[in-house]
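Q: Fold this one first, please.
A: Sequence and structure below.
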Amino acid sequence: MFVDFSQPGHLPHRDSGRDRPDELPGDAALLIWSMRRLVVAWPRCHAVQAALHRRFGSEALGVEHLLRCWLAGLASHARRPLLLAQPGSASILADEGAMLFVLRQANEPDVAGAALATLCGCEAARGLLPLAVALQRLSRLG
């Protein structure tokens, strides 16, 4: 896939100054954990399904589908391996922070689009913005 787990260092989270998932507000920690788990257990992870169902109820399948589309879209547009930490990691990597930034800023298309293009290294990544908007609408990102 597009994720490189070989990098030993954990870089600071660029989004909010926090560098631990458990310090993130709203659904951000759940989304980070879910993305990490989905990448490891591609394409389905029963633990993610259960956690999303507890949080989102009847909308859980939609959120899971959006997350898988989001990850697949990032994978197809990224010009380099994007770095995600192991699912249980206490640190947030810079790419994860950039993904959260895009999701939080999705209602600002110029800002979020530019962040997507920078993250992926390609202008075509701006086409993923509708997925970010949908994820933002379904979740609380603090």
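Q: Good. Now the second chain.
A: Here it is, same layout.
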Amino acid sequence: MLSPEDLQELEASLLPALERHHLRLLAHSLRSLQQAADHSDGGAASPDAADGLPDAAALARWASGQPGLQADPGFIPVLLEQLDKAAVQLKAIAREQQRRPLQLSIADLVSWGRRQADARLAAGPGVNPSPAPPHS
């Protein structure tokens, strides 16, 4: 979950609303993946995960244990799909930062968002020279 400090850091970025919304989604996914990794098998990711991200089974166990999701178990597969898509983006951002995805900070995401916005603005209207990492 995002802390009040996380939210404040995202809002203080002064990025356009769409970029801030995208960053909030990525930040929430990052925190959820970090939490799932911390709660899976004593803090370990799947043994074969070089990126340190929890595997699908660990994520499903984590999601099933979340009180807010227990009231709506049908939402769990949707959430897991979205976390999987966010993980692809977080991996790409982490590669740029030369670190593992779960080592990213909110400040790393804000810096990435600023670079994306700056590149888009520098390229002019209607051009996206450096698209966001794939999310599907």
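Q: Anything worth noting on the second one?
A: The chain is about 60% helix and 0% strand.
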